[in-house]
């Protein structure tokens, strides 16, 4: 087991990375002083695989856990699902000393965190991410939320978990498409922060895609290290943390325009990263050789790179204008200047975006 820290003063917490370590969760929570009731929030697919082990680990540590399940899928990261969680918590009479455990991927982690941040004005929660995307990105940093039909993650809070417990063995049961989707966020870290990590992803693609243990541990640990460093410097996205949104402005627009059903989150972000690199070229911020290297790596991992032709520019632009980084109609993008360095570019013109989108089809 390896442990990292997200340093946020009295909100600091550990990220524990291990292999076949779900049974250790209960003892860790008990040792940390948790004593209240625990609700495990999950979906039927994940709970069928890992629910008994997590519930058993909590029970063995003296807790009395119960489960709350919501349907599987991005479309269920919604206010109606959130209400069902509140109803379950109230029915079970959870109080301010209670704890929520998010067992699942990004949807479960985001909605559980939001429920924790608002139930009785805030209770503790723990992330137990079971997808690569959640392990390297969404479980760390305290962003919580639900979707609206008009925009992704438009309703949410910053609420840090008390612990992130990563068991890489859960990736062995993950559908290949879900695993590959998570690699988009991994590639993102190389582009925005670490050239050596980007180089590793280029040379180590075969091992990563084969789920080699050492390669996976390195990918997850380095991704979490970068995310933890950025979040520790800028918890609430006042400046630096915004770079973590590389690829997300166009990616979220694609998800919204397709009703959250055609693309997985990482697939949409992959397309968005390539499009953002093209936009950087259009604006004269980066040369094409860097873009081709980014696009090639995205393609090597089996991720999509092209904006679908049936999504019109006006529709995408309308969705982008609902992006949280947009202020008074001014569009803001995270754009690469080179591999390992990005900049936040405000006031990007619709004409430049249109050209970049056409180049990305």
Order of helices and strands: EEHEHEHEHEHEEEHHHHHHHHEEH
Largest sheet: 7 strands, mixed
Query: Could you give the order of strands across the largest sheet?
Result: 1-2-9-6-5-3-4
The fourth-level CATH homologous superfamily of the largest domain is Dehydroquinate synthase-like - alpha domain
Q: Radius of gyration, rounded? A: 20 Å
Categorize the overall geometry: globular
- Average residue-wise pLDDT: 96
What is the structural class? alpha/beta
- Portion of residues in beta strands equals 15-25%
Mind explaining what this structure looks like?
The protein has helices at residues 25-31, 44-60, 79-91, 106-118, 132-138, 176-192, 195-203, 205-209, 213-233, 248-257, 265-282, 288-300, 313-320, 350-359, and strands at 2-6, 13-18, 38-42, 65-69, 99-104, 124-129, 143-148, 151-158, 163-167, 332-338, 341-346. It has 361 residues and is α/β, with parallel strands linked by helices. It has 2 domains: 2-173, Rossmann fold (3-Layer(aba) Sandwich), CATH 3.40.50; 178-359, Dehydroquinate synthase-like, alpha domain. The strands form 3 sheets. A 7-stranded mixed beta sheet has the order 1-2-9-6-5-3-4. Helix 4 links the parallel strand 5 (99-104) and strand 6 (124-129). The mean pLDDT is 96.
């Amino acid at each position: 087991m390896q442990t990292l820290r997200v340093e946020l003063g009295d909100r600091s917490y550990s990220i524990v990375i291990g292999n076949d370590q779900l049974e250790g969760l209960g003892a860790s929570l008990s040792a940390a002083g948790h004593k209240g009731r625990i609700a495990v929030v999950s979906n039927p697919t994940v709970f069928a695989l890992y629910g008994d082990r997590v519930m058993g680990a909590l029970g063995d540590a003296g807790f009395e856990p119960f489960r709350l399940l919501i349907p599987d899928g991005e479309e269920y990261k919604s206010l109606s699902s959130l209400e069902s969680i509140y109803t379950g918590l109230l029915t079970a009479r959870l109080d301010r000393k209670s704890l929520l455990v998010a067992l699942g991927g990004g949807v479960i982690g985001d909605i559980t965190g939001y429920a924790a941040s608002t139930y009785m004005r805030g209770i503790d929660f723990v992330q137990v991410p079971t997808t690569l995307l959640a392990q390297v990105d969404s479980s760390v940093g305290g962003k919580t939320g639900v979707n609206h039909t008009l925009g992704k993650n438009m309703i949410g809070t910053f609420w840090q978990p008390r612990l992130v417990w990563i068991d890489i063995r859960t990736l062995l049961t993950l559908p290949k498409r879900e695993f590959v989707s998570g690699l988009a966020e991994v590639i993102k870290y190389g582009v925005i922060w670490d050239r050596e990590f980007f180089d590793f992803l280029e040379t180590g693609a075969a091992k990563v895609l084969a789920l080699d243990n050492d390669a996976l541990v390195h990918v997850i640990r380095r991704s979490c290290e970068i995310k933890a460093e950025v979040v520790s410097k800028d918890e609430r996205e006042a400046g630096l943390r915004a770079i973590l949104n590389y690829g997300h402005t166009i990616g979220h627009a694609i998800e919204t325009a397709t009703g959250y059903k055609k693309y997985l989150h990482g697939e949409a972000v992959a397309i968005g990263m390539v499009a953002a690199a093209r936009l950087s070229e259009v604006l004269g911020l980066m040369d094409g050789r860097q873009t081709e290297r980014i696009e090639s790596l995205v393609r090597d991992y089996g991720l999509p790179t092209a904006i679908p032709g049936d999504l019109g520019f006006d529709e995408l632009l309308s969705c982008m204008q609902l992006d949280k980084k947009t202020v008074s109609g001014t569009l803001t993008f995270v754009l690469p200047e080179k591999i390992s360095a990005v900049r936040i570019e405000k006031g990007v013109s619709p004409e430049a975006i249109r050209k970049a989108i056409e180049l990305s089809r």
